[in-house]
UniProtKB/TrEMBL annotation:
GO terms for molecular function: transaminase activity. This is Aspartate aminotransferase family protein. InterPro entries: Aminotrans_3, Aminotrans_3_PPA_site, PyrdxlP-dep_Trfase, PyrdxlP-dep_Trfase_major, PyrdxlP-dep_Trfase_small. Transmembrane segments: none annotated. Belongs to the class-III pyridoxal-phosphate-dependent aminotransferase family. Its cofactor is pyridoxal 5'-phosphate.
Length: 430
């Protein structure tokens, strides 16, 4: 550990807190060195089976040869041009239009945060309205429009809870917060703010709080209400898009939003994202000569990202990736649930497809309030125990775990044996 501590001390001398995104400060503080397939190696030369997957982008595996080779080859002749559009950019957009039900037109960005920002601003431009609705517990990036009521403390649930100092009051107060899975709350909020709501933005599955599944009729109800009231419906599929299928979760649930934001698994970990949707809305962006919602970015459509999307999509289209990651996801969900039950631990494992989340409670989890019942201490103890066994489940409460294509059945078998050891010890202590 000394090496990791020294490195962190060195990093802290030149970077505030030593990390470059605030959720990377964890205990124990692991310092990554390399990653290959389903494994990451830290600076102490310890190897871990990786279920963190860098918060979800790694859907195939780390340093995945077919992706890295394609990018390396592309970079021999392409980087960044700053005029027109490359054939790679065009092909990426064609692919997204082909697969994602809501996508008639697409613009490429560098991050999910940029995509949600643009989706909201164009919604304001097209409706001439100021307010938006988001849901308690959902995360849509760090900009002022959406950075409120994310992981709120109990006493701030549904109340005014800006996520940062320095946010503009006008931005915070223009974002209304509703309860997920509560259509009455949404309807009432729309009525109380009649003709003022430009957009509703929602993670169709709120994965930033693990995995809270939409109740039957909830997403359909949002679609209905937004149509009735002339509101733009934005599905933030930065996590769900391409991780839950080529058409995103919207294809699985059969609800088509007006706009969709994509990122993370779209490019197996390379920095590129997208905003897409109905042509009549997308044409409002100033990339179109008659548009009036500013859209610009020096690095948009960089060859590293576009090559990564094309290589990743090619594998997702032609290999049994979803069969594999869904099967291992299901094995992890049932395996951990059985182990917890056998050891008398109050755990409910939730998830979807490749995602699994052990919540340390036996109560049902349907919205943010329900998370207050989770035993966070035990959750962290389990995750830290797994790290000691060589399995990386990020030691942050309720964060989701992911299976990836490079993960093998024997990795899963090993992980379940490790979980048995950790939970047995926890059961004995309880
Ligand atoms: C649902 C969702 N939307 C948007 C974002 C922001 O994406 P990025 O971190 O690429 O800016 C995230 C990041 O975790 C996310 O989970």
């Amino acid at each position: 550990m000394k090496h990791a501590e020294d490195l962190m001390a060195r990093s802290m001398r030149v970077a505030p807190g030593g990390v470059h995104s605030n959720t990377r400060r964890i205990t124990p503080q692991l310092m990554p060195k390399s990653g290959k397939g389903a494994r990451v190696t830290t600076q102490d030369n310890k190897e871990y089976i990786d279920f963190h997957a860098s918060f979800g982008p790694i859907i195939l595996g780390h340093a995945y040869s077919k992706v890295t080779n394609f990018i390396t080859e592309a970079l021999q002749e392409q980087d960044l041009f700053g005029f027109g559009a490359t054939e790679y950019e065009i092909r990426c957009c064609e692919k997204i239009v082909e697969h994602v039900p809501s996508a008639e037109k697409v613009l490429l960005t560098n991050s999910g945060t940029e995509s949600t920002f643009h989706a909201i601003r164009v919604s304001r431009a097209i409706t001439g309205r100021k307010k938006i609705i988001k849901f308690q517990g959902c995360y849509h990036g760090w900009h002022d429009y959406v950075a409120r009521n994310m992981l709120s403390a109990k006493e701030l649930i549904g109340k005014r809870d800006p996520g940062s100092a320095g946010m503009l009051d006008e931005a915070v107060d223009s974002t209304l917060v509703c309860r997920y899975n509560d259509l009455d709350d949404v309807e009432q909020t729309i009525k109380q703010n009649k003709d003022e709501v430009a957009a509703i933005i929602v993670e169709p599955i709120p994965h930033n709080i693990g995995c809270v599944l939409p109740q039957s009729g909830f997403l359909e109800g949002l679609r209905e209400l937004t149509k009735q009231h002339g509101i733009v419906l934005i599905f933030d599929e930065v996590i769900t898009g391409f991780r839950h299928g080529l058409g995103g979760y919207q294809q699985a649930c059969g609800v088509t939003p007006d706009l969709t934001t994509l990122g993370k698994a779209i490019a197996n970990g390379y920095p590129i994202a997208a905003v897409c949707g109905k042509a009549e809305i997308m044409d409002y962006f100033t990339t179109n000569p008659s548009g009036n919602a500013l859209f610009a970015g020096t690095y948009n459509g960089h060859a590293v990202g576009t090559a990564a999307i094309l290589a990743t999509l090619d594998i997702l289209e032609t290999e049994p990736v979803y069969d594999h990651i869904y099967k291992l996801g299901a094995t992890m969900r049932s395996g951990i649930q059985d182990i917890a039950d056998r050891n008398g631990l109050p755990v409910t494992v939730k998830g979807f497809g490749s995602v699994f989340v052990p919540y340390f409670t036996r109560d049902t989890i349907e919205n943010y309030e329900d998370l207050m019942k989770v035993d966070v201490e035990s959750d962290l103890k389990f995750r830290r125990g797994m790290i000691e066994q060589g399995v990386l489940m990020i030691p942050l409460p309720m964060k989701r775990n992911h299976t990836m294509y490079a993960l093998s059945q024997s990795d899963v078998d090993y992980t379940l044996e490790a979980a048995e050891k950790v939970m047995k010890a926890m059961g004995r202590e309880a």
